[in-house]
Amino acid sequence: MQSQDVASRPGPAPADPVVDVERAEAALVEHYPRLVRLAYLVLPPSLGRNRRVVTAHSLTQRALPRGRAAATPVVPAQSTGRDGDPGYTYLRLRVLRTALEAGLTLKRPAWPRRSQLPPLLPQVWGLRLFPRSGGADELALDQRLSALSGPARAAYVLRGLEKLPDGDVREILTAAGVEDVDDALEDADAVPAQYALLDSPEFDPCSLQARPTDLMRRRQHLRAALAAGAALLVCGALLGLPGEGWAPDGPAAPPYAQNPAAEAALDPAQLTKVPALAWQSAARTDFSVWPARGDLTDDSALLRRALAVWARPGETVAVSATPGTPAGGPPGAPQLLYAGTVDTARVVLLYDGLRIARYAEPVDGTAGAALDFSRVDSATRADAGAVVLSRADGNVRYLLAPWVKEAAERDLLKPDTGAMELTVTDGVTSPLASPLSQRTGACSSWNVLQTTDGTGTRLLSDLAELVPARLTTGRPGETREVTGEQALHTWAPYSCWLGAMRSAGVRTVNAWSFATQPLPEGNGPADWVCTRAETWRGGGERVLAQFRTPGATRAALAAKAQNVPACGARDPHVLAGVLWKAKAGGWYLLAAGTRDTDSITATGGVHGTSPGNLLAAEAKQGAKAELKGTLESGRVINGLK
Fold first, then answer.
1. What pairs with residue 630 in β-bridges?
2. C-alpha distance across the termini of the chain, in Å
């Protein structure tokens, strides 16, 4: 079934009227890692890896269209991938054009273009950022690409990363302002077609390593030196200088203060270690009753390093925290959840009542240590079922709650396929494939962790955080676990959209089928589902309205919103619409609301009114419309945007 309001060519003209700022923003959010990788590969290597990373992010973030911010929000056309998304092709052209401009030689007296100057934002002070190192093949390819001109690099990247034929590459380069496209294609032919290497972490400016800048040069700045000296004098006068100190703390920064409270929080002997069976008689079951597990729970040196790095991470420590999670030191002696060797790292899990902190270091030293935080306050038994121990080679290992009796791996995209049992040793699962390891834009599977305890079965999904998100289904306020054939089939077409909720501090994700709509011209029934992600911090909720036509394996995104009560327990209502093309070629505006919607009205580029919670109105390709619904209570709601 045809269901996309797109042109057949990959590179839309700069003045394409179909692409408005809302559609472009949606494409930017969905395909941001791929657009940044494209910019990074096309930018001249002479900028250096740190500036290439920052410039690639800057160019991509400035790619949104200007002068359209006041445009009326639209009902987007149904789109099932970046190749059929006019917003993505529009942004790709803008990113490509500015990346090529950044490689031009500055000429006087002409004014330089914005892309030729160092980016104002984003800026990272005191650190140099660069992608993770690849192998010898990636290094050789990078050297060959650096010898090419900007247009030739762009041609190679469009062929390999975007997998476009030469005819489309020629059109895009021409639209980007390249004067001699034939020369660019000919020069690109000189580099071997090792296109698979372009997806390597070597060329991923979204997965970075950090190192300090030139420390000696920084110390030469007089004001900074005076301010630092004054701060040291004040701290020394108030707190006193450190005494003899403790044992070496690995990659931790030098201590700046020493007092009884701080010493207690950093003393491994003060760690709380819960007995193995305490959870069976405890008044509550959450992370506070997890026992200490692992083969290194008595390794005082490792525990001391983990606590010291938590309190004062050094410049070489990679620190990350989910949104809304403070990254400061523990207020007192924390609880030890795990200390042991996992794959090629020593891992320590700690809990302070508000956060879980994971310290990891290589088994052969402390270089490359990492510290991760995740907020878990007010966790329930259902929320505290598992914590990520490690991610390696595209796999993830979990530490399970002591009350979990069985663990298995399940593919959400294949609801009729059974779960594959996982081996659990001392609470640690055998590795299972993480859905986050798939290539950007690809979604052939979505593997989740299935846990079973005395109260039921739950599904947990890795969303690039320490604590996996719990998946539920059903009407808001009456949600239930994803168990049984019907619940699994409800989630299957919508699971790939979980990637849009990664690294957002997500606690639970609920999928609710709020309407079924007969399609015009006898094309069968379509499903409307609202997916809502709740966070640990209580803000930043994300809501997606999705539309699935009969026979489609994946749903299309119809609308999205953030920080809204729609489709949640406080406001279990939602209204969304989509432009849809019938088999016979006619275009329609389709809209649906919850069952208690009394009527729906469309205005703008499409006019129509329908009683009840479903609307189908004839439309034109690219039409813009606004939706309003009236509930049975008389309340008016707007369409999700």
1. 599, 636
2. 25
